[in-house]
Queue: 4 jobs
Job 1
Amino acid sequence: MKGTRLRLTVPTRPARDAVLAFLTGLEASYGGPFAGALTELRDAAESNVAIAFEDGGLLQSLDAWQNTLLPVAYHAAHEVDVAVRRAHAIFAALGRRPAEFIGRPGNSLSLYDRRFAGFVRAMLVEPELLVLDRLFEELGRDERQGIAACIDLFGSRYPLRRVLYLGLSEVNLPEFEVMQ
Amino acid sequence: MAAGVAYAGVKGYGGLLWDVLGRLSVLKRDPVRDVLVRQMRTAGMATLSAMVVRAAGIGTLIIAYTTYVLAADAAFAVRILIWAVLREIGPLFAVILLTVRSGTAMAAEFALMRERGELQALRLSGISLLDYIIVPTIVAMTVSNLAITVYFQFLAVGGGILVSALLMDVSIAELVEHFFALASVWDLVYTVIKSLAFGLLVGLVVCIHGLGIGGRQTTMPEAVSRAVMQSIVAVLTFNAVFAYLVFGVLFFGIVKAPA
């Protein structure tokens, strides 16, 4: 169903890698649990899948701001100006300033800020399916609320698009529908 | 067994080279061009700054040696300079500097990116490693090595001629005249082909070992060590084969092609 928010707890890191590779189309087949539901998600997204990584997935060779724009700049160079304006709007909507991220390599940011930059990067792609990779784990309550605000912003901007939360433990999971 | 491994290795390099040639158009994309510029800065500038004294020193050494030990005249000294610096030492010295200074840095950077999960994040974000990392790196290494070689040769020949003018009773103008009379366009073509091929080979080896292509999942120090060793072996092998194909000699004339 469109607009749904699901959560899936995987037992191990390799299992998480397999799910991500399958959803993004890097692997054609998936033999783990919930294969049917994951296949349905993947097919519905038609390869338009973005991942907000647990550590942001930022490259050290770029600053955090450049990282947020990288996938858009790589895939659709003509839309970079639009993406920059949208990134500014997302930062503003979440009470952050791009200046906090410009010129700063990923490893100089806190875990929360890395995840925040990674989330904005995923959101800028405007994915049909947004995968949240353990985003609530190892964060304090306020920071989890910050991530929840990001997810709500995505939901408000793209109400018909789906969100899948991937967790490695049962602690601090968002109140999403459990994948069946 | 060893032949099989060598064949698999050559096939792997050949396949990667083919892929790179087929994707050169990605250099038009801004993020890929940014990587190209960054890698050229790493490969070119880092090496260029290290070679001024070395290049001039080598040119000087060659001239001093031929003058004193071989009691050469100006024309012979310049001929040795052309043969050694333009054809052999120039391209080889430049690529060794490129490998040691920039090849190691790039192999280490790639291996660290692999260990930090950055490569996986790129792949999962739909960004091809071939397009975003391998193509710009190999192009940067190839072009940079040509620039480094030309720079090295200019400094070495210039340094050699300058010292010759001081050591022998000849003017700089006379030596320059000898140089242009003895150097041929073929020397230039030969050195350009060689330095482009050397840079290409080092780029391929660095990418394969740094990024762990073809299942070569090694630790960072191991990746760097293998990248350096295999780069040098690949360059020396190509140098010998190319010299044999062009001049019909191997190992400075010890082995000659059949008539």
Note: The interface with chain B takes residues 17, 20-21, 24, 26, 50-51, 53, 55, 57-61, 70-71, 73-75, 77, 80, 121 of chain A (CB under 8 Å).
Job 2
Amino acid sequence: MSDRDSTTLTAPGVEVIEESGVETGAAAPRRMMLNMGPQHPSTHGVLRLQLELDGEIIVSCRPDIGYLHTGIEKQCEALTWQQAVTLTDRVDYLAPLSNNLCYCLAVEKLLGLEIPAHAQWMRVMLTELTRLNSHLVWLGTHAIDIGAMSVFLYCFREREEILRIFEMFSGQRMMTSYFRIGGLALAAPRGWQHRVRTLMDIFPSRIDEYEDLLTNNRIWMGRTKGVGRISLEDMLDLGVTGPMLRAAGLSWDTRKTHPYSSYEQFDFEVPTRTENDVYARYQVRIEEMRQSVRIVRQALEGMPSGPFQAAAPHVVLPEREKMKTQMEALIYHFKIVTEGFSVPEGEVYQVIESPRGELGYYVVSDGTSKAYRVHIHGPSFGNLQAVPTMVRNTPIADVIASMGSMDFVLGDTDR
Amino acid sequence: MLPEQWKELWKEFPVVAALESFDSAAIATGKYDRGELTLEIAPDRIVSICGYLKAGQAFVRLSGVTAVDRYPAEPRFEVVYHLHCLERSERLRLKCRLQTGAPIESVTGVWRSADWYEREVFDLFGIRFLNHPDLRRIMLPEEWEGHPLRKDYPVMGYK
């Protein structure tokens, strides 16, 4: 073994496996184990991939997750129903409102609550802004991983404005907890229409800007076209959902197939592609952003007026004024704040379309003021499971592009 | 065997009727609540039932596997499977009740996605899945003691 070989062997995280009988022939194949992560920047969080390499080609891949496991499901059993909303924000920190929505819908289904039209539309509008927010972070970081640095700056410029809108509504930029069981946390702030409309007016041209930078960029096409292929059957079998499936030609979107929160009243399309590679997934998400803008515009134009919370005094906190004049309101307030409200016995599996795919909340109640069990099925968990199949027999340089196209969030995976 | 009052429901849910004719002894009971269909399956039949539902009833996706701990009641655990049929936009929940310490057959042979889902249940509930290709902890470190989502595991505290 030459000196040069032995120095490569001592590099951190690299381990050379000598195959049996390797000493008999100088040209015998050698496999290398490479640890990618858990601190690798392209893993967007802490994911570790154990790659077995034959030269530059990946022979096998073993993902190691759990670094961000925070026991949110266990915590949900310890907090009251309404308190647990704040935990759902922290599941998928790029799409907190989607998680708020899914949890609230599940509990509202158990309670049998009717949510007023205004609150439903507001929820649709804000989850679509969340989708824009999430896709912008995805696009910026995906491009930076592949080497197109400037896209990131453009994406975060618009994302900043979306976060400011969230802050305007809820007082928080990221962990909004704006959707509550029974409606919204607060009435919409004065002047929100102007703020959202201004952003929506410029947004289509901003998407054009991103496309100018990437869509016909030869380097971008070279790095993404034909990369990260995995068959539709494999994806369905491995639990992949969302834009990944739509880039493989399957037009399935929970917003269309099982409309929730009045999505059936909105006019939008489900973009699909058939190329089934990283580039197609990029195109699908870009088109999804345009469709989200369409939905937000419709919500702006047709926003129904009315209350932002359900008429359910045992669930929703009373108005401050009523508490000062009505005994009943004071009693309800006391009860909700001290022990919380109880939810009828039962179980519900609520599914929504999060920016990453199918997000499911399985909520079990035993009739008390705390959840008996909350299971969160994050889309990233299913998507990540397909990584070994996707990267097998591909060059190591394409792993970054392939993983980026999955748009996973480790908080969502590990919970 | 399905209870008598379920006879009417068969007509509404072809999948229930089909399952009944496939293996009538496998269905312990079931319910239709808040628009969601739940069937309770005998634990030893879960693989054959799932295999049939995927091949014969187009439930191509396994949307998730999880569990509920009914401590201190026995049978203690409910293993819950959420199935999804894309063709008919239909969802179905299967449930198996397990005694403390009892294992269940893995459905990884039917849907590969069950691999991680079952590992998660194994890790957090301590339910063993037989014939699982790679049954290790997935969220917690290998040397972790206990299974946090069990009801007798404290929410707070060290040891």
Note: The interface with chain B takes residues 65-66, 69, 71, 73-75, 77-78, 109-110, 236-239, 250, 252, 257-258, 346-349, 351, 358, 360, 362, 364, 372-373, 375, 377, 381-382, 385, 414-415 of chain A (CB under 8 Å).
Job 3
Amino acid sequence: MSEELFYVGRRVPKLDAPAKVTGQVVYGHDMKLPRMLHGKILRSEHAHARILNIDTSRAKALPGVKAVITAEDIPEIKIGWARDHPVLKSGKVRSMRDEIAAVAAVDVDTAQEALELIKVEYEELPGVFDPEEAIKPGAPIIHEEAPDNIQEKMRQSYFHGDVHQGFAESEVVIEDRLRLPFVTHCCMGTCFCLASFSPSGDLTVWSSTQMPFLYQRDLSMALGIPATKIRVIKATMGGAFGSKLDMYPFEPICILLAQKTGRPVRITFTREEEFIASPTRQPVICDIKSGAKKDGTLMARQVSMILDNGAYSSWGATTPLVMMQSISSLYRVPNVKYDVVVAYTNNPYSGAMRGYGNPQATFVIECHMDMLAHELGMDPMQFRLKNANQPGDVTGQGVKITTCGLTECIERAADSVSWVEKQAKPGNRGVGMAAMIHVGGGARIYPSDGCGSTVKVDDYGKVTLVTGSTDMGQGSETVLAQIVAEELGVPVENVTVINTDTDITPWDVGAHASRTTFIAGNSARLAAADAKGQILEAAAQNIGEDVEDLDMKDGKIFRKGEPEEWIPFAKMVRSKHFRPDGDVILAKGWYEPPTERQDKEFRGNISATYGFAAQAVEVEVDTETGEVTVLKIAAAHDVGRAINPMAVEGQIHGGVSMGLGYGLYEELVVQEGEVLNPNFADYALPTALDMPPIESIIIETDDPAGPFGAKGMAEPACIPTAPAIVNAVYDAVGVRIRDLPITPEKVLNALKEKEAR
Amino acid sequence: MVSLTMTLNGEEVTIEVRPDALLVDVLRDQLELTGTKEACGEGECGACTVLLDGEPVTSCLVPALKAQGREVMTVEGLASGGELHPLQKAFIEHGAVQCGYCTPGMLMSAKALLDRNPHPTEGEIRQAISGNLCRCTGYVKIVEAIKAASED
């Protein structure tokens, strides 16, 4: 890190913050177009039923209703990652969120009233709500194409080494069953879609998508509209956390209503709809077996999982691939086997959520690391250090670890909670920790993992970065502006960022896998470097110098070594423009990471680098009430380089709070397919009073592949928190919680069982 | 429709509203003050918080006619004379904003706190915003920003 940096590493406030603190930002929820109608969706009353008849006649007759649609009005095309999901359902419904009909009306109340006038006759079918029951012979069949209720594409087996031999060579072997519940994103801004057609049939969609280009393709497929007639613009959204990764049925429905009425239509979810009809994190039932030698050398890990897919497959059905990476590669473990089944049930369907399977995988691994350490009689921190991944390791799955701050993360997190003084001490307080690995340099799950950018410099020196990437509120615009400012040598105030308008912005796979800073950052840097070259070339011609002798910093062009004699760079931009053979400064960058897709045995290096973290927590357990109070969380994250430390801290804090909610409070209660707590009164998000002090510890390993050394870090913050809390509860009172959330009731029951023993 | 007169962000406003209209809908849909957000409609998340005679209320639960003859302040009224409120400046400088959907409600709860208690403790700050949910920040930088504004 010898180079002097001016804008990278600075706590630059978010570019959009002034507009957000004044209420001036227009979110998708706030948008209105002339003659705009409001769309509403009728959902199933049953989790599994045949649809015998849908009578929309009374709804159609209601004044103010402009269109009512059912499955008859839409091409018979199935959407979703496995193409198993009809947009509007006919024949039968498979979950209680299923879309049956939709209405466009002059206002929301009229649309709602119209829904109540639609009569649907059902014949109820037996449902199946437990994934283990679903895959037994004789269970009710959810999709005729999958008579065993298994999503075949995700029935996977992975291995490296030989687990049988690994366990045979182990001196301590333990086996357990662990479970994880339904939880959901709870974005403060719900899902929305606003669709409008031009007279020539060109569609513009203002959307809360985080994957605009795949979304454009999916809309085209679902509606039979050529992608060339579709423009997707991301409107400002209130958070995403993975929930806006897929195109969902409400979006083609909204567009269809607009097409049918010839008027713009907006659909905005209510909070209840958001709980019921946006996806969840997949519940997991996991059997795990781990073995080690007496000296603490990890020998073998065997994991078998059943995931509750719900009734349909979103991108979230592919989370086993991310789980697999942690199972194969978190810590050095020579023998690994992983088997996974993704089961259809009549529950709400699962999707992508921050960490994308990794919170579940890390939970089972890190609970078991702790249990194994205790079985070995070792300090769990020392056990982790002994087996920690190191720079230069290539794991059994072919994961190539380059920069790796895992050891430092473990040590620094432990120090922060005074681990040595507090671990295994009497009383009701305890400390626990968990670590994690996650992709930090993109994730090649698609033929391209690239991102395009352009940089335009105008005659006045204003720099516009047009990036393919998507800002969902996490602050990628600001980070990219800092990267461009640094590379180009202009003040960050001069840089404006345009993102996510498919008519304007170059291609990008989307905001997922913590890839934006790394991938879009590298892309923006290439474009900025190209623009800088063009400007210096113009300057060299203008003032008769060799281009190699010139440099640019802080908006000033000067001869290298003579920074006091300078020319404003905008003047040189104009000099290129204002001449007979003139030109504009317009540069592009395309970055495709040097990675590979996995082979048929799931081996391959899908990310250009990997992020590591360790979190340590101190808890106090009230043995009378069972209540767990987290006193402190230390979160040490190897981020490569913090382009904006304030933004990095913000991601750590937010992730930790999501992880704390997963650990202690959150559960979507689903009974017979019905969400029983679709509101914030009954689904407990952490409040300001629930959050303990968080010490964010930024470890910089200066990754050579990253833009100015940075690697992805946003998802990781929510990944290790919950298992760290479980492990701390064990350290405090000696009881092992095997399923989340850690409710007082579970703690009390476990304490009673311990007494009885 | 009935007539509603209130002082809104310092100016007297009279409009015709439905008798059962909620304050949040009148502000957002009729007066186009979309800075106030609605995120749950049940008074559980605080995104729609505005000040009614200086007291924070969840405007999704307040009938609009309750504002008759009273003072209502929304996030749009926080800055004055072209100058951002110290809380707004602190939220920007301390990174207290991510997606920003909870921000207007947070700011109004924080303003109500500082108006009655200019130098709150961290505990008092957390208590004052405990009805405002945020999914992005873990509240850390929001609390820091309110603290910083109170020390200005």
Note: The radius of gyration of chain B is 15 Å.
Job 4
Amino acid sequence: MPDSIDRQRRLIIGAALSGVASRAFAQAEAPARPPSSQRMEPLRHVDAGVLNIAYYEAGPADGPAAILLHGFPYDIHSYVDVAAQLSAKGCRVIVPCLRGFGATRFRDSATLRSGEQAALGADVIALMDALGIQRAVIAGHNWGGRAACVAAALWPERCGGMVTVNSYLIQDLARAMVPIDPRYEVELWYEYYFQIERGRAGLAANRREIARMLWEDWSPDWDFDDATFDRSAAAHDNPDFVDVVIHSYRHRFGLAAGDPAYAELQRRLAPLPQITVPSITLDGDADGVLPAGDGRASAAKFTGHRIHRVVMGAGHNVPQEAPEAFAAAVMELVKA
Amino acid sequence: MRRIRFISDGQCRNVEFALKFVSEFAVTEIARAPRAPSSKRLEPLRNVDAGVLNISYYEAGPADGPVVMLLHGFPYDIHSFVDVAPQLAAQGCRVIVPYLRGYGPTRFLDPATPRSGEQAAMGADLMALMDALKIQRAVFAGYDWGGRAACIGAALWPERCIGLVCVNSYLIQDIARAMVPARPEREVPLWYQYYFQIERGRAGLAANRRGITKILWEQWSPNWSFDEACLDRTAIAHDNSDYVDVVIHSYRHRYGLADSDPRYADIQQRLAALPAITVPAVTLDGEADGVAVATDGRSSAHRFTGRRVHRVVPRAGHNLPQEEPEAFAAAVMELIKA
């Protein structure tokens, strides 16, 4: 992706948006990071919809709720710093393992291991219902950012505000067969690989190597160590991981049928519903898979108050790479 | 500016010693001739009905010289041999450089013929061309798709093959094992193959064929500094109206995800057994090949039952004949002189 990795261009984007981009992050206040050995523990478990969801909780039980949603191929430790920072500021932080990840399990062996966007959104609402949380700031990146968008768009009454990386992430399945610039198609190699059974076998056999490659490609400036990677990669040993991932990447191209249980939700997602709740969208200026933009392309999808920022130095895993920027965005919505 | 560079024998890593045959040939010094400019085209082209195709080809050299069939790959064209062809012609060879099916002015004779890109078809096309030109025997030399065609011709019709020059050794596809994953770092360069499995990839190839070609050239040949004119000269061969169909079929068929043309079923059945190559062979790997990593030739040694020499060519990427024409032409000449 020559454009996105061009430092000059990235700096120019950053400068163009400096009115908003420079406001939040002096970076000088970045506290020391916890060691890579720190795990988000203990985990709690709750039956929620079709899942028994494992989640980490921190902060005062009566604080404003913030639900932090991880992506692929990551896990809850994308929020290891964000969760601590938000709980210290009085938030009740909930960080669930998505379906197919970590200690989350399907309750019924017969449930389709769907990775479709509607399922991820429904899981968020099911979790909120199970925990008796009426409203929350919903924040995420990658798959988790998509789940946040789905929840915010379809259940705005449950969402006090939304933070996502890469702006509007609800998939336009009707246009999934429209090619993009081949320089960007190259970066989606894993999505195409997963379309055929060789890719399923490859993911099953080499999930750690593939995840590590994607981390490195997507976050070229992020100097994570082996312990940091291993901590997250362990979540991919979930027995449903391969099925959910493969289904996710086939469904988004229209090449796997959805779970009928989510047909109505998917029907509502198809017209690409607008997000009406207050939103802050973040792009990592070094994002190696989704190049940073100025937010204008998705502006029409946000009808409420929306701020877009480019986070300098961050790749695709913004919450783990630039936790202060991510936490600050959540806090702005909590306080609003 | 004329520039002569040399390959020292220290640079050229012969691994012949590891193989059953030790060549007398030693690369000591090969003068690098000046390269043809990017404006140079292999012309005029000739045309001949051959099998299901009307094949467009370039011919050079004496009509009674030993024949060399030079077979290009994807996403390239006959200009991969723009320097090899005159070098071989100057040494007395009759050089035939066909556009493969789907490329350049080569056309299918019948609109109803499936636009197959399967390996058996490539081999059958080679034989059909030789029959049409009444060539009994030739050296088969190619890389990528063309290397595969050369391997097939050599394996199934050894009586028609004086010798084989192939980049990346044994290229007949083991379709029965196509669903076995490779190491992830080797899967990444195959992004286009996976892209082509779905209709988005077909649409992407149709819309952005030049852009895809440029990316693949850059990825596969990191040391090759081709210019836009060089790319353009080849890219127009991809405007062939059958290009997208043939390419997509090729990359789906090799994964068992597209049907064969029934007319090639017998050939494909013979290829499924991964037949050995019995004719003399020189295999070359580009040291900097970005898609098929250079090897020492041992993993494919059992596929060659005749004398076989394997070499790693310094600096070269995947498009070895265009990048290092002297090394490629020298391999051909060794087989002719043998």
Note: The first helix of chain A runs from residue 7 to 16.
